[in-house]
Structure to design on (109 residues):
């Protein structure tokens, strides 16, 4: 089995096309401003909804789920890269985040 391509936060382009595969409650709590949200379990049925990225950077909370999605997408011929450390690393690096909860600052749950 081939290793899943991955990138650390320091090497993630600022204009990366992001696919966030976390669950709805995680997304609502805090996410990257320009990310597209498709929960991991919905990815197989929503390939057409994925953003165009070459490559597509896939992110979750810590990198586990996104790694599985990257492996799946590779089997579908989609060039994708796992974001190591996920949204936890994103937040720790001070990258911008937004929340879908009115009046509540973004957080990674």
């Amino acid at each position: 089995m081939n290793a899943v391509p991955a990138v650390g936060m320091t090497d993630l382009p600022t204009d990366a096309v992001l696919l966030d595969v976390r669950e709805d409650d995680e997304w609502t709590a805090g996410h990257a401003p320009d990310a597209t949200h498709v929960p991991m379990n919905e990815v197989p049925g929503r390939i057409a909804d994925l953003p165009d990225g070459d490559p597509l950077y896939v992110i979750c909370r810590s990198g586990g789920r996104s790694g599985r999605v990257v492996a799946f997408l590779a089997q579908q011929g989609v060039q994708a890269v796992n974001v190591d450390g996920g949204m936890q690393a994103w937040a720790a690096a001070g990258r911008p985040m937004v929340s879908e909860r009115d009046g509540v600052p973004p957080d990674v749950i």
Q: What stands out?
A: The longest strand covers residues 17-20. The chain is about 25% helix and 15% strand. The beta strands are 6-7, 17-20, 36-37, 56-59, 80-83.
